[in-house]
Amino acid sequence: MGSLSIRNQIAGTVTSLTSGEAMTTVKVRLEGGQDLTAAITTDAAKDLGLAAGSAVKALVKATEVALATAAVDGISIRNQLSGTVADVSVGGAMASVKVDVNGAGLTAAITKDAAEALGLSAGSSVVALIKATEISLATA
Questions:
Q1: 65, 75, 84, 92: which one has the fewest Cβ atoms less than 10 Å from its Cβ?
Q2: How many other CB atoms sit within 10 Å of the CB of residue 112?
């Protein structure tokens, strides 16, 4: 795979696929043991030749990763990955938060205000929230 601007590239293995006419949900077990669901087009799933056991990389833009200080109930977002803040880099308006998710690195780009309101710093426990439709898959 060539270079991508997407920082978040997490390796995993497809555990199951549920295909519809237009969209397919793909369940992926990340190397660290957590599960992720990606919703991609059925055409893309076919083009990639995805099947249970396929090695993939889950790709997600940092701007599509939200953070919470605990698991969130009553929300449509399927992916809630527990992790620990490794680093917070604050700029004028935005903050880049690096999260260790069972050995995989995940970066969230959130507002400076949100980072401060959540009291995020290295060592903070967080949950990364990612909509299934915001995850792309690449064959590894």
A1: 92
A2: 14
Q: How far, in Å, CA of 9 to CA of 7, rounded?
A: 6
| Coil vs helix vs strand at 24 | strand
Distance of alpha carbon 111 from alpha carbon 51, whole angstroms: 38
Confidence (pLDDT) at 23: 98
How far, in Å, CA of 89 to CA of 25, rounded? 34
Q: Cα angle at 108 between 87 and 89, to 5 degrees?
A: 35
Q: Return d(Cα 34, Cα 37) in angstroms, integer.
A: 10
Higher pLDDT, 55 or 32: 55
